Amino acid sequence: MAASEEVSRTIARHTYGSWRRQELWKEPLLIEDAEGVYFFDHAGKPYLDFSSQMMCSNLGHKNPVIIEAIQKQAEKLAYIAPGMTSRATFDAIQALRSVLPPNLAKFFFSTSGTEANEAALKLVRQCKAPRYKILSRYRSYHGATPGSLTFTGDPRRILAETARCTIDGVRFAPDAYCYRCPFGLTYAECNIQCARYVNYMIKEEGNVAAIIVEPVVGTNGRIVPPPEYFPILRTICDENEVVLIADEVMSGWFRTGTAFAMEHWGVEPDILTTAKGCTGAYTPVGVTVTNQAIADFFEGETLDHGHTYAYHALTLSAIPAAVSEYKRIMASGLPQKVSQYLKERLYELGDRHVSIGDVRGIGHFYALELVKNRGTKEPFNVKSDRFSRKSLMTSQVSADASKKGLYVMGWYDSLIIAPPLIITEAEVDEAIGILDQSLEIADREAEDTNTPFTKSSEFTKP
Ligand SMILES: Cc1ncc(COP(=O)(O)O)c(C=O)c1O
Fold first, then answer.
1. CB-CB contact of 121 with 91 (8 Å)
2. Which residue's CA lies nearest to atom 3 of ligand 1?
3. Selection from 208, 68, 71 nearest residue 132 by Cα
4. Could you tell me the pTM of the whole model?
5. Radius of gyration, CA atoms only, the chain
6. What is residue 127's three-state secondary structure?
7. Does the beta carbon of 272 lie inside 6 Å of ligand 1?
């Protein structure tokens, strides 16, 4: 068997590392095994997975129920062309309909969140033609291909624009980001300008077909909007006949405490997209599901969309098993209890570390936003630093945590706390213990201004 260094170096030499300068893809960490909330490298060293990999391994690793479902499907029928169908599709839609908002009626299955959003884009542009504009928000990520990356607000879009890999007709609405309100206002005197401004945009722009939103913003901040935000946005969409697309690729699957984050505000989207947690990341699936009105429109139309692997039986077989596992775990009460504990422990970190500006989030989905100065909220890093040669403070903290056996993803301004729903209080303690040490790296470069950290999601609580 090849030595682990050779395996890792050979892979690096012959594969492209995603979203990074290739000179930094030299010896990726070789992972050999995973179980529960831990994964293990080539030397057997355990890492506690505090970000559920890419916020997708929500059920932890080696779940026996899901493994068995995939094995059975592989033995029976791994794949059938999408012009025919299989019982795997029937079982997947039955399982999904038991947790999705009830107005959502018709599905398209693909193999990633990106594809789920590209399908939503094409559905919307076909059914709302000649309207074509898509509104999104700056603090967002919706996928890696030209359409979904154009309506992504984060730094990844900027590179795609330079490479001319974008589409026309996308505009950005303000973020519901109370810690750094784009209008400089304070909740609740703000009268929720971030939502109301969308009405102004739609009227002034003309030709707006849809708005796509992450109900709780994922990679770009774990931002919980004020309670009024989505009811206002729903009314604006209805009054202007604009399609409301909820991208629940990351916020779905009980990550925020409910099956889908939109449930917190009792708002039904017209289209919902999801992926990641729908199989607990055991197989790659993207889901696009629309309301009946959109389904009706297509009765007399050609759906101009499809993939060889659409409705792939093997990938779909993980969905019913994952849904039943989510229901079992939620019924046990463990995630509800641990999410409360997780929040308290993160608030303790906020009390101890001057580099933590805001602790916000909900359920098993939190951000520690790092700042140089809590008083002025001066950040260590900004959006444009993400693809520059600057060393990010979040990367320094994550790298140190990794050495100590904790996997925690960092974005340019915050750490992403998103453990699997099966995590226990003792495992939270282990992770917090390591973070407590690693955050000292950021503290050393922060000023102590005697300002407490912010708990912005306390006042935006659903
Ligand atoms: C909210 C959101 N939408 C879409 C995507 C794209 O999903 P995928 O990476 O499966 O293509 C992601 C991925 O992180 C996401 O967080």
1. no
2. 142
3. 208
4. 0.98
5. 22
6. helix
7. no
